[in-house]
Every structure is written in C-alpha cells, then in structure tokens.
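Handout, section B. The chain below has 67 residues.
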Amino acid sequence: MITEHATPEDFAKWRSHAETLCTVSLRYVIADCRSAAAALRHSNPIREGYYEDQAFTYADELARRKP
C-alpha cells in the first residue's frame, strides 16, 4: 500500500530491495521513479516527493557501489 508520504518503513524496504538489484536494474528503477515524479509535478507535490525519495534511495545504492 502506498501512503501519501514516504515512511521510514518505505525507505527500509527500498534500501533492502536496492541491494538485491544489478546496476542495470537500479538505473531502470531510478529512471522510472523520476518519470513518475515528473508526471505528478504541478498536480500532486506530495506524491511527486514520494517518488523522488524512492529515486534517491535507489540512486544512493548505485553511488555506494562506485569505487
């Protein structure tokens, strides 16, 4: 279930999932989240922020993997 705001549980779930993905999949998820956020721009800033938070969490895992 998706709530309006990202919860600590959401961040934990996303971090856990991100750790299981390959780099290509991480990039796909990040792009998908950013696309969803862009689609909500100007119509639902709270949901836009939710997807931006999700994209950031996956991008953080991608950055963590870089040497």
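Note. DSSP finds three helices and no strands in the chain. Compare this with the example in section A.
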